[in-house]
């Protein structure tokens, strides 16, 4: 019945999408002024300028086909504005004056210089946020969030985190990330949002790599597809992606000016991450025994077998339909895959992978919104794991991830993490023979229904 249900769900989604509009999320001047300390990025990861610089965002949609790489990008807007006599020439002059960049004959070179200035400012902003011993919390929303929607749940999470931090003697400062994950019919925009997220993540990586204070306590909170933004920001998140341009794969692997952030006090919490269980498979190369990424000291997975969105409607659909989002719903396999894919982290010191399994609500399926998960009793466990230094409560049976697929068990040396058995030489050889993506293919294609 599952394959038939998947087909029915796909047909229903397709019918619902027929004629539905989707749109890019462009950040207006008033929104950027309201959140002056936030980072705003377009669909290819270019940073918006300071809030004091007016940006005629509607012109990002003009002069390019919606299917083109230039459509809805700041680069396209300013390339048009740089043409002598252009109606928006004032916007180009304002940007040059703000960044102090002298235009080059080649627009591409000038644009790269401008983005370099804006990235340096963003990195300095993170450094300032960490001054006076403050803990920096980076918030990253998922797809299908416009400014208003993301800002609403950002504010709610900030209020909750601030109270928890104060109770433990911490002072928190927040940096919000707004990116173009599109907005409109969820099914129609999903594919394009999956394409935008990795590119946004790569450019965000360059901001994180530019901080001076490498020991700043950085706590990252992502929701839904914000996970694959940060997956690419911290490491080689290319594992689930096929058919991308060669430039993406080179940058994902840390080449061409996209080195991994040298952060030494990093934690990350992913709430219902909308990505495959093996999204981090390329953080470790089985043949080179080399790490391609910055491994968080503590990674907390907020998972739910009953999440409606990542489960694609649960009973009607499959988490593998229209893009694999099974990390959020397949708890045991996700734990096993993530621990396996980050196994090289032992060479970098003690790392932890924790999971919090949110319960099934009375409605059978769990609403996908952050606000809904914040109402669960396990939200405290999830948030405290990100913010506090104390261990998770042993009473939570999904508190720690096990290396092997199977029931989660507690370590005899609680609260120490469960030991990860190192792969044997034959296992490593078998993986090398099968190729880099063997484990990813196996898990993505053979996940059972939990």
By DSSP (H or I, 4+ residues per run), the number of helices equals: 14
Tell how many strands the DSSP assignment holds. 11
Order of helices and strands: HEHEHHHEHEEHEHHEEEEHEHHHH
Mean pLDDT: 83
What strand order characterises the main sheet? Answer: 2-4-3-6-7-10-11
Structure at a glance:
By secondary structure, the protein is α/β, with parallel strands linked by helices. The chain has 14 helices and eleven strands. Helix 5 crosses helix 7 and helix 7 packs parallel to helix 8.
Keywords:
single chain, 450 residues, alpha/beta, 2 domains, 7-stranded parallel beta sheet, two-stranded antiparallel ribbon, 14 helices, 11 strands, 38% helix, 11% strand, disordered C terminus
Please explain how this structure is put together.
By secondary structure, the protein is of the alpha/beta class. It has two domains: 337 residues, no CATH class; 95 residues, no CATH class. The strands form three sheets. The chain has a seven-stranded parallel β-sheet, sandwiched between helices. α5 packs across α7 and α7 packs parallel to α8. The longest helix is centred in the middle third of the chain and has 24 residues. The N terminus and C terminus are likely disordered.
């Amino acid at each position: 019945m599952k394959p038939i249900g998947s087909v029915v769900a796909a047909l229903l989604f397709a019918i619902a999408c027929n004629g539905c509009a989707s749109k890019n999320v462009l950040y207006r001047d008033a929104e950027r002024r309201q959140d002056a300390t936030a980072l705003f990025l377009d669909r290819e990861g270019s940073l918006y300028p300071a809030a004091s610089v007016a940006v005629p965002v509607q012109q990002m949609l003009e002069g390019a086909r919606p299917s083109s790489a230039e459509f809805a990008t700041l680069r396209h807007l300013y390339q048009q504005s740089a043409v002598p006599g252009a109606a928006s020439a004032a916007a180009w002059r304002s940007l040059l004056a703000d960044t102090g960049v002298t235009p080059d004959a080649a627009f591409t070179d000038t644009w790269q210089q401008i983005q370099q200035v804006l990235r340096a400012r963003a990195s300095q902003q993170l450094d300032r946020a960490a001054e006076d011993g403050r803990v920096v919390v980076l918030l990253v929303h998922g797809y299908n969030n416009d400014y208003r929607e993301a800002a609403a749940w950002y504010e709610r999470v900030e209020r909750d985190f601030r109270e928890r931090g104060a109770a433990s003697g911490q002072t928190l400062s927040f940096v919000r990330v707004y990116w173009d994950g599109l907005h409109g019919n969820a099914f129609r925009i999903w594919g394009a949002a999956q394409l935008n997220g990795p590119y946004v993540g790569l450019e965000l990586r360059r901001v994180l790599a530019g901080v001076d204070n490498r020991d700043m306590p950085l706590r990252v909170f992502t929701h839904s597809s914000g996970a694959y933004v940060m997956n690419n920001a911290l490491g080689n998140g290319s594992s689930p992606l096929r058919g991308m341009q060669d430039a993406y794969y080179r940058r994902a692997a840390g080449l061409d000016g996209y080195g991994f952030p040298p952060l030494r006090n990093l934690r990350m919490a992913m709430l219902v991450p909308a990505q495959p269980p093996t999204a981090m498979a390329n953080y470790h190369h089985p043949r080179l025994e080399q790490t391609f990424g910055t491994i968080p000291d503590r990674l907390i997975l907020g998972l739910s077998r009953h999440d409606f969105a990542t489960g694609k409607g649960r009973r009607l659909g499959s988490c593998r339909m229209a893009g694999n989002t099974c990390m959020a719903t397949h708890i045991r396999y996700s734990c096993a895959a993530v621990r396996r894919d980050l196994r090289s982290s032992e060479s970098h010191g003690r790392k932890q992978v924790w999971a919090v399994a949110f319960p099934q609500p009375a409605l059978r399926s769990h609403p996908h919104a952050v606000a809904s998960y914040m109402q669960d009793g396990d939200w405290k466990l999830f948030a405290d794991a990100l913010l506090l230094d104390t261990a998770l409560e042993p009473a939570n049976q999904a508190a720690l991830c096990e290396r092997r697929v199977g029931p989660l068990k507690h370590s005899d040396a609680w609260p120490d993490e469960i030991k990860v058995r190192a792969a044997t030489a034959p296992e490593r050889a078998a993986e090398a023979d099968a190729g880099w993506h063997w484990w990813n293919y196996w898990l993505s294609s053979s996940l059972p229904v939990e």
